[in-house]
Design goal:
Blueprint: H1 2-7, H2 31-55, H3 63-79, H4 83-98, H5 114-118, H6 156-167, E1 172-174, E2 177-180, H7 183-193, H8 198-205, H9 216-222, H10 224-232, H11 234-246, E3 250-253, E4 260-262
Antiparallel strand pairs: 1-4, 2-3
Helix pairs in contact: 2-4, 4-6, 7-8, 7-11, 9-10, 10-11
Length: 273
């Protein structure tokens, strides 16, 4: 039956040439020119701190190195046509800062970008900390930039509301991740569903050997105490029976619940929902 269904399917995925949302720039500007303009303005704001560090003898690189690095990054970002991406990120981070919503200083490879530092996307000086831009964007390995951003958990909803209003409710969605339930986790989940006392469920879950990827059936086979508990207590037998049927099923994990997708068109047209 699976093959019959597959034979009836005909799916053609078109490669999209432009995957970024539309970012409105002022009249007379292009994405590239406005991106360069706000980046240079941001660098000028950072320059005061750099000059102070230089006067104190604590600046590790000359200002000429910053200017050369900035020119190189700007040229590469425009060549790779990522100006719009940077403007989108710059815009909602600027909104957060204007509203006094705490924003993380930056982490991951994006911290190696002087453009990101100039745009106040990050607060880490890459030259002062010997960070490489090529770990973030490399012309020899074309890939999308990945900027990890942390917002205050209490107010990040305001940032999500901002991008939703700006780009359209149908074009913006939060994301979730799914993980499968292992032996210990499925026992605890089944116990909660059965409304069993936590201590009883926890005691059974802790009998599962600490072996990577061990199945519940293997745990029962290897642990006499689990078998004895199952045989003498109908509640434990029911718990383990349900847990074995649920084991391996996907469950929602909230690890990336704050991740947000922003699309140039309604999401239902391009991704499964």
């Amino acid at each position: 039956r699976t093959l019959e269904i597959a034979a009836r399917c005909n799916l053609h995925l078109e490669k999209k040439q432009h995957v970024f949302p539309h970012f409105e720039v002022p009249a007379g500007e292009t994405l590239e020119s406005f991106f360069e303009k706000v980046t240079r303005q941001g660098f000028d704001e950072r320059r005061a701190k750099l000059e102070r560090l230089r006067a104190e003898g604590r600046l590790r690189s000359p200002l000429e190195a910053y200017e050369e690095r900035l020119e190189r990054e700007l040229a590469l970002i425009k060549e790779m046509r990522f100006a719009g991406y940077f403007l989108i990120v710059w815009d909602f981070i600027r909104f957060a800062r204007d509203k006094c919503i705490p924003v993380g200083p930056g982490r991951g490879s994006a911290a190696g970008s002087l453009v990101s530092y100039s745009l106040h996307i990050t607060d880490i000086d890459p030259l002062q900390n010997d960070l490489l831009f090529e770990r973030f964007l490399n012309p020899e390995r074309i890939s999308f930039p990945d900027i990890d951003i942390d917002f205050c958990m209490r107010r990040r909803g305001e940032v999500i509301s901002y991008v939703t209003e700006k780009y359209g409710r149908e074009n913006v969605s939060q994301i979730i991740t799914f993980g499968t339930m292992g032996a210990k986790a499925v026992i605890r989940d089944a116990g909660r569903a059965l409304d069993m006392p936590f201590n009883d469920v926890d005691r059974i879950a802790k009998l599962v050997p600490n072996i990577l990827n061990i199945s519940l059936a293997e745990a029962i086979a290897q642990t006499a105490e689990m078998r004895q508990a199952r045989d003498r207590d109908p509640r434990v037998a029911e718990l383990l029976g349900i847990a074995e049927r649920l084991e391996g099923f996907a469950r929602h994990a909230s690890t990336h619940a704050a991740g947000v997708v922003i699309s140039p068109q309604p999401l239902q047209e391009i991704v499964p929902l």
